[in-house]
Design goal:
heterodimer, A: 112 residues, mainly beta, seven-stranded mixed beta sheet, four-stranded antiparallel beta sheet, 62% strand, B: 112 residues, six-stranded mixed beta sheet, five-stranded antiparallel beta sheet, 11 strands, 0% helix
Chain lengths: 112, 112
């Protein structure tokens, strides 16, 4: 079965600083990968998804970008963080016959 | 358009049954899912149902699907304090991206 790793688990960054969040997947190959943001413990906003290496689709215009340098690695980045980028960031992958989406443990980002 | 709605809160007594409801609007949805999120954690897949099914039972969980009314429910029998969490329903289609549409989440509080 698949395992999704995310790091760091928590991060406090000042406004204007860069960001790099990493997600790696084990136990499956060629997964669809997703980045979500969750504000205040409710509601998931899909930020990016990827169906393959180097293939990134953005769902909403924002201060963030994503990359997929390897099959099972998905990175979320920003050149300059805004206060509004604070939130809980979740990485997910889809695998299985029922196209189940599985989630990583998340990264709590606080921009100060 | 696509939208998934849930009531925000539900409070039940330990040992009672909980019923969490969800309505969706995309009639082309093929798969429907229920997730559980505990504080500070990622989403845990609980169960799923294919759109041509009416019901699915998995131990204490029963999923009912009324496709005509686009209504999905999750019943938790013998609710325990460990069931306290936020519950999300989600729908997806069988397009290549398998994007999910998540509900807003229902916060279940189990009273001892």
């Amino acid at each position: 079965s698949q395992t999704i790793h995310q790091w760091p688990a928590t991060l406090v960054q000042p406004v204007g600083s860069p960001l790099s969040l990493e997600c790696t997947v084990e136990g499956t190959s060629n997964p669809n990968l997703y980045w979500y943001r969750q504000a205040a413990g409710r509601g998931l906003q899909l930020l990016f998804y990827s169906v393959g290496i180097g293939q990134i689709s953005s769902e909403v215009p924002q201060n963030l970008s994503a990359s997929r340098p390897q099959d099972r690695q998905f990175i979320l980045s920003s050149k300059k963080l805004l206060l509004s980028d604070s939130g809980f960031y979740l990485c997910a992958c889809i695998t299985g016959a029922w196209y189940e989406q599985y989630f990583g443990p998340g990264t709590r980002l606080t921009v100060t | 358009g696509e939208d998934v709605e849930q009531s925000l809160f539900l409070s039940v007594r330990e040992g009672d049954s909980s019923v969490i409801n969800c309505t969706y609007t995309d009639s082309s949805s093929t798969y429907l899912y229920w997730y559980k999120q505990e504080p500070g954690a990622g989403l845990q897949l609980l169960t799923y149902i294919f759109s041509n099914m009416d019901m699915k039972q998995d131990q204490r969980l029963t999923v009912l699907l009324n496709k005509k009314d686009k209504h999905l429910s999750l019943r938790i029998a013998d609710t325990q304090t460990g069931d306290s969490a936020i519950y999300f329903c989600a729908e997806s289609t069988t397009s290549g991206t398998y994007k999910y549409i998540f509900g807003t989440g229902t916060r279940l509080k189990v009273l001892a």
